[in-house]
UniProtKB/TrEMBL annotation, chain A:
<keyword id="KW-0496">Mitochondrion</keyword>
<keyword id="KW-0963">Cytoplasm</keyword>
<dbReference type="InterPro" id="IPR029342">
    <property type="entry name" value="ECIST_C"/>
</dbReference>
<feature type="region of interest" description="Disordered">
    <location>
        <begin position="428"/>
        <end position="475"/>
    </location>
</feature>
<comment type="similarity">
    <text>Belongs to the ECSIT family.</text>
</comment>
<dbReference type="GO" id="GO:0005634">
    <property type="term" value="C:nucleus"/>
</dbReference>
<dbReference type="Pfam" id="PF06239">
    <property type="entry name" value="ECSIT_N"/>
</dbReference>
<feature type="compositionally biased region" description="Basic and acidic residues">
    <location>
        <begin position="51"/>
        <end position="62"/>
    </location>
</feature>
<keyword id="KW-0399">Innate immunity</keyword>
UniProtKB/TrEMBL annotation, chain B:
<dbReference type="GO" id="GO:0032981">
    <property type="term" value="P:mitochondrial respiratory chain complex I assembly"/>
</dbReference>
<comment type="similarity">
    <text>Belongs to the CIA30 family.</text>
</comment>
<feature type="domain" description="NADH:ubiquinone oxidoreductase intermediate-associated protein 30">
    <location>
        <begin position="102"/>
        <end position="275"/>
    </location>
</feature>
<dbReference type="GO" id="GO:0005829">
    <property type="term" value="C:cytosol"/>
</dbReference>
<dbReference type="GO" id="GO:0006120">
    <property type="term" value="P:mitochondrial electron transport, NADH to ubiquinone"/>
</dbReference>
<dbReference type="InterPro" id="IPR013857">
    <property type="entry name" value="NADH-UbQ_OxRdtase-assoc_prot30"/>
</dbReference>
<protein>
    <recommendedName>
        <fullName>Complex I intermediate-associated protein 30, mitochondrial</fullName>
    </recommendedName>
</protein>
<keyword id="KW-0496">Mitochondrion</keyword>
<dbReference type="InterPro" id="IPR008979">
    <property type="entry name" value="Galactose-bd-like_sf"/>
</dbReference>
Length: 475, 301
């Protein structure tokens, strides 16, 4: 069949050999195809395609774009000259520039000082790899394997590592030539590899920079799927990045005592709360911090001290816990010193015995407020006793808590006369069998209301996270 | 004439469609065990062998009971309709600035919610819900496990969620929440420092939008104090199957079907969230209509 009318179509519609050239010129790299001499000066050598095609890099272009296909095959096969061995000798200005930028942008606030950055080490390894490439193909498989290995190497949050991976991919060979090829989802495995890389960046919250955009533009061309994904990330990541209203935690989180201090700062809503170290850890740093003597950190605000002073010795106070607190990826256990909820006759000030119901001394008329200004919720809020102090122990709970209460008694003399009841829950037990899709948990049942001895404890109430359903008596 | 016949045909076809839909929804209690509404099938799982009507229970007594229940519901709806919008007098409807949607004080309140986790896709997370101390709040707790099921297809795992059951009227008619008088969601919660996602599901007209969710985040502080979180509805963004969509629009507040909470912060370990009540608030200081740009974002590069 003669398709003479095909030739009459504008040449740009089918794409021509100019598209890779255009991308390469965008990347400011010398062209590879015509002259082998210029190829040797190339910084990051392009992977050459093996004669027997690697399945991971398989070319899946259809035959209907044959004009572009043939020239593309030529273009990718044209660089079989030995530019790779000598390519490593040339200095790589974009690499060095990139590294410096990476160190600038990815500097961790907490811990980039003394330790070597795993991202930088990974980048150096990739640089070595690009200097002496293992073979002609397999870059796609290499990038995918590296993506899977990044979390294990600790470089999953380093932007430079991702950029270095993108730099391994060839420029221009996977750019569709013309709108028809672009419509047909060209190079699906290659584009999906790019998408996977971007998705992993998104998963670990790495914000792509202009370098990433530049590299993706060279590898996949404009309006490709990785480019679209990058645009979406550039749009959404800055919007959703700083939504957390709480003070930002350092990354990585410091271990031990410092983490406990940060946790107490986060939990105490009062800026005047005093965080005091009751017992310092004995090896006070390093891996085995607190192995001989664990730390105890306590937190009490002036208001809480006042509440504790007003709390009469007739009613007991309770030590409850442990409750979990997550600081990004670190689990802390904290304990609460809590009073009973006050009975209503103590909560409100007593009415004036002299007052008259018929001739009140002051009127509470709010003439400027209409019936549409009622902003309260018609609900009885969950009530609990006042929190009197907080504690994060570093080791075994019972001993630490006794020490904590002793230290609190020094600061609050009223506590010495007050009975303290320890209402601790056993260590986390796995709750019974998972039953999904139903509102009721497996077998909690109503608690027996009263009259349990202190030592007796039914196994039924030794479950999970909150032990006692009723207010008291469980010791 | 031909046009009129065509119109008539169209009308009858349309009404027939609707009637079939009503018939299907009235079959709901019969087909309660079937998986008509869940389209997800785990990779590697066998397709359902039994036909859907084979699970139906055609007992006469059950249908009479069902009819009684539905008729009493219909009676209550009629009375509410005569009283005013939403069963409240008109003055309250016009003047209310806050509304309590859900509070957790008894087991019936917990039964209005459905909990689920990635066990559905083969994961290993666990989630439970129960009443808190003194029957005062709902305690949603469990363990998050990000271990990916080994079926060769699933890439991510590790989520737990809690979702309100969609409201239905008598004879299983769909009912929607109309929240258009309010502009903020109000939650009184106590968490453990982990972030949660708040999802609003609005009933779509087309079935290809059935996975659309409007989401925003709820960052709990942790600690022994209750916190009161206000989330304006203008902040909710549209996502479908976990992907944020390019074309955004404000949430349809008059077609809200369910509200849900999801945890999936990629951290293995126990979590817990206590919810006291969930309400709506008309925050008159909040003037924002929509927080995200609504223009076309796929401009040529």
């Amino acid at each position: 069949m003669r398709l003479g009318w095909l030739r009459a179509l504008p040449r740009r519609l089918w794409g021509g050999p100019a598209a890779p050239e255009l991308c390469r010129s965008l990347c400011q790299r010398p062209a590879r195809v015509p002259s082998e001499g210029s190829d040797s000066a190339e910084g990051t050598p392009k992977p050459r395609r093996a004669p027997s095609r690697d399945p991971a890099e398989g070319d899946t272009r259809g035959g209907d774009t044959s004009g572009g296909d043939a020239s593309g095959g030529d273009a990718s096969g044209g660089d079989t000259s030995g530019g790779d061995a000598s390519g490593g000798d040339a200095p790589k200005p974009p690499l060095s520039r990139l590294r410096s930028r990476h160190e600038r942008t990815h500097g961790d606030p907490g811990g980039s000082g003394g330790r070597a950055d795993p991202g930088a080490a990974f980048e150096a390894a990739l640089r070595e790899l690009s200097r002496a490439p293992p073979g002609r193909g397999g870059r796609l498989a290499l990038v995918e394997a590296a993506l899977a290995a990044l979390p294990a190497l600790g470089a999953e949050r380093s932007l430079g590592a991702y950029n270095a991976l993108l730099r391994l991919l060839p420029r221009g060979a996977w750019v569709p030539r013309g709108p028809v090829q672009r419509l047909l989802f060209p190079f699906p495995r290659q584009q999906e590899c790019g998408l996977r890389l971007l998705e992993q960046m998104e998963r670990y919250g790495v914000m792509p920079d202009a370098e990433t955009q530049f590299l993706l533009l060279g590898v996949f061309g404009p309006r490709s799927r990785p480019m679209r994904k990058l645009q979406r990330m550039q749009f959404w990541l800055p919007r959703l990045r700083h939504l957390d209203p709480h003070p930002q935690l350092p990354r990585p989180l410091p271990p031990g005592l410092e983490a406990a201090r940060l946790g107490l700062q986060r939990m105490a809503c009062d800026p005047g709360a005093v965080i005091s170290v009751i017992q310092a850890p004995v090896p006070d740093s390093g891996e085995d911090e607190g192995s001989i003597q664990p730390f105890i950190v306590s937190c009490q605000s002036p208001d809480q001290r006042e509440l504790l002073a007003q709390h009469g010795p007739a009613r007991p106070v309770f030590v409850e816990g442990p409750f979990p607190l997550w600081l990004r990826g670190t689990l802390l256990k904290y304990f609460v010193l809590r009073g009973d909820p006050l009975p209503p006759e103590l909560r409100d000030p007593p009415p004036d015995p002299e007052r008259s119901f018929y001739f009140p001394l002051h009127l509470e008329l709010e003439l400027e407020r209409g019936p549409w200004d009622e902003d309260g919720f018609a609900v009885d809020r969950a009530e609990e006793g006042p929190v009197l102090a907080l504690c994060v122990p570093g080791g075994a709970a019972r001993r630490c808590l006794a020490r904590w209460i002793a230290a609190l008694q020094e600061q609050n003399p009223a506590l010495a006369a007050t009975p303290v009841i320890f209402r601790l829950q056993p260590a986390a037990e796995p709750p019974p069998r998972a039953r999904l899709g139903q509102g009721s948990p497996p077998g909690p049942g109503p608690e027996p209301p009263e009259g349990r001895g202190a030592g007796r404890r039914e196994p039924r109430e030794r479950r999970g996270i909150k032990g006692c359903a009723d207010g008291r008596g469980c010791r | 004439m031909a046009l009129a016949v065509m119109l008539l045909n169209g009308a009858s076809f349309h009404s027939g469609c609707c009637r079939r839909k009503v018939f299907l929804s009235s079959l709901g209690p019969l087909l309660s065990n079937s998986k008509l509404y869940s389209s997800y099938r785990r990779p590697g799982a066998e397709p359902e062998k039994k036909l859907s009507w084979q699970n139906a229970d055609f007992s006469f007594k059950k249908s009479i009971d069902h009819l009684k229940t539905q008729l009493s519901l219909l009676k209550k709806e009629t009375q509410d309709y005569l009283k005013g919008p939403g069963g409240n007098p008109l003055s309250q409807h016009l003047l209310e600035q806050t509304r309590v949607l859900w509070q957790f004080r008894s087991q019936e309140d917990l039964n209005k919610w459905v909990i689920s986790s990635d066990v559905e896709i083969g994961g290993k997370s666990k989630v439970y819900i129960k009443l808190g101390r003194n029957n005062q709040a709902a305690l949603l707790y469990g363990t998050l496990n990000t271990e990916v099921p080994r079926d060769g297809e699933t890439k991510y795992s590790g989520y737990c969620s809690m979702r309100s059951k969609p409201e239905v009227g008598s004879f299983n008619r769909k009912k929607y929440y109309d929240w258009s008088n309010f502009n903020s969601l109000y939650l009184r919660v106590r968490g453990d420092g982990r972030p949660w996602m708040v999802n609003i599901y609005t009933d779509p007209y087309f079935s290809h939008q059935k996975d659309d969710l409007y989401s925003y985040f709820m960052f709990t502080r942790g600690g022994p104090y209750w916190e009161e979180i206000t989330i304006p509805f203008s902040k909710f963004f549209l996502s479908s199957r976990g992907r944020v969509q390019d074309n955004q629009h404000p949430v349809w507040l008059d077609k809200v079907r369910t509200l849900g909470f999801t945890i999936g912060d990629k951290v293995d370990g126990p979590f817990q969230l206590e919810i006291d009540f969930i309400g709506l608030l008309n925050d008159r200081a909040h003037k924002e209509k929509f927080a995200y740009e609504a223009y076309d974002k796929n401009t040529p590069v």
